[in-house]
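User: Can you predict the 3D structure for this chain?
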Amino acid sequence: MAPQVTKQAVGNKWLKDFKNVVEMDGWGQREEARESYAGLAAIIANKTMGDETSTWTEREAVNAERMAICLRLRSDEIRRGGMHGISLANMKALVPVMEQLFRGGEKFPIDLKSVDDADLARAKTALCLPPKAGVSRGRCDAKTLQQRRQDVVETIIGSDDEDENDPHDRKGKGFLGSPDGARPADKPKPHSRSVGFQVGKIGFKDENLQLVDPTISAYVVAGGKVTGVQVDTSPAQKHQAKYFIFDEAIKMTQSLEAIAPGSAIVFEFKHFKKDKNKMSTKCWCFLEREDLKNGPAVLELYKKPVDPKRKKLSLFTVKPLYLHIDVEIGDGPHAGKLY
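Assistant: Here is the predicted structure, written as structure tokens:
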């Protein structure tokens, strides 16, 4: 007879796996992190509906369900390539919860009521959790559990289809919401030219500026609306003198041919605000479609809010500080060193 595994031992294993995937996420290993988040979410969700939970307190069960939901939401967010939902900073905030899951409990730092209803429903469905998961305990029968495992495997293997409820198509709902609601773009055709950027650095006059998870988000705007999927860098590698250094390559989902004349690429500089538990835009800039040519580009910074029409522009600073990028136009969707 196999020895019974204590809930503390289970919690320790989950904690180790969770810390590993958060570190993976922080290093920008997004595909590996996406798969690991989804896998760990399924494991935790399965356990919350097993017989072992008879020794769990109600709070332990509820927090475990919430943890599974958040992991799944983060996996889905990485798959979409956006930053409008559960973020890396949110994942880091969950580490203390995982550490104390079976040791008295820790206040859960994420309010799931702030998550888009459609996103939340999809996450719970994927994990076969009841509609009120994270509030009260639930159970699934063996047949449903088996189907859920199959669904999770199929999702991890690579179902990257978007649907009509994608968060880029919502306004103001969720953790951040995108300007005018960004819609998924078609993947570049085999013979089209890819559009990518080597994001170098961005300058600020305050050399002592301290920000949490500073990132750059890029997306296409046309006719005053977002027309493509947002692409994000990993958090800046370092803060040196007046600059946040990224030195990271990103690639747009739209080909050069799919970006219409008169359009532009908008770049938002964002950072995580702990007091509001969300990403906040500090400043922004843009590159016109007509200026999409191979080589370096230096972009002026503007005050928020972002104006997709580029009509109401107010300089962020009079100092000669900019976003420094290199434009890289490839011969195909996987050209050059971009990924």
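Residues 136-189, 333-339 have pLDDT under 50 and may be disordered. DSSP finds seven helices and eleven strands in the chain.
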